[in-house]
Amino acid sequence: MNIVVLISGRGSNLQSIIDKKEEGELDITIDAVISSVPDVLGLQRAKKAGISTHVIHHEKFTGREAFDQSLQDCIDQYHPQLVVLAGFMRVLSPAFVAHYQGRLINIHPALLPKFPGLNTHRRAIEAGEKEHGVSVHFVTAEVDGGPVIAQAKVEIKADDTTDTLATRVLEQEHILYPRVLRWFCENRITLKKKEVYFDNTRLGIEGMVIN
Questions:
Q1: Of the listed 57, 79, 99, 108, which one is catalytic?
Q2: What is the DSSP letter of 100?
Q3: Full-prediction pTM beyond 0.85?
Q4: Does 108 participate in catalysis according to the annotation?
Q5: What is the DSSP letter of 58?
Q6: pLDDT for 122-180, tens place per residue?
Q7: CA–CA separation, 20 and 96 (whole Å)
Q8: Positive or negative CA dihedral for 98, 101, 103, 104?
Q9: Same domain, 45 and 92
Q10: To pair with 79 at 20 to 30 A between CA atoms, which of 4, 51, 98, 150?
């Protein structure tokens, strides 16, 4: 399976995918890594792994649609089977999302549908939640609102800070995202009428829960 990965920062989830590929646990080809921000660590990680990189700096575009069209043109030269958002901090236009329907996924540090958007760890603690975690989901026009493929949960401890909680969630991100990609490689994940199926069984709102 060939993929293109979109990033905006340090690329730690990208690195977890690269590591699993190099360990032989993922039968994928990462054709390109595209960043919306120049000079980020994720680009260095990609170059070290011998992956083609591109920068499409969002600040050089006057509107979201123009940026998205340039991004789409860059992606489409690789004809990816899956487009993987890994810390890509841009809201994508409905036209862009529709173009990649069923082959555009994202990872979000919360147990969706709870806490879409930013500052999820702080919000979960302030809300008095007992558990938090990470979700991998199909991307739709609604921000962080697409059907969930899988989740990993972590307990929120009484003495947790946003930093300690974020650290444990990130550990789960690095486990969950490669696992979901492996399921795609094995053709175990499908999207039918906005519902996710795993081995032809319809999943619930949480998707597959791995812990």
A1: 108
A2: T
A3: yes
A4: yes
A5: G
A6: 999 999 999 999 999 999 999 999 999 999 999 999 999 999 999 999 999 999 999 99
A7: 29
A8: positive
A9: yes
A10: 150
Contact predicate 11/46, CB 8 Å: yes
Q: Are residues 96 and 117 in the same domain?
A: no
Per-residue pLDDT tens digits for 2-13: 999 999 999 999
Determine the Cα angle at 95 with ends 90 and 101, to 5°: 90
The three-class DSSP label of residue 83 is strand
pLDDT at 120: 98
Q: Which two tokens stand for residue 99?
A: 């173009």
* 176: amino acid identity, one letter: L
Pairing label, strands 189-192, 195-198: antiparallel
Residues 6+ apart with CB under 8 A from 142: none
pLDDT of residue 211: 77
Cα–Cα distance between 111 and 152 in angstroms, integer?
A: 8
Amino acid at 48: K
Whether residues 82 and 113 share a domain: the answer is: no
Q: Would you say how long the chain is, in residues? A: 211
Q: Which domain holds residue 174?
A: 108-211
pLDDT tens, residue by residue, 63-88: 899 999 999 999 999 999 999 999 99
Domains contained in the chain, number: 2
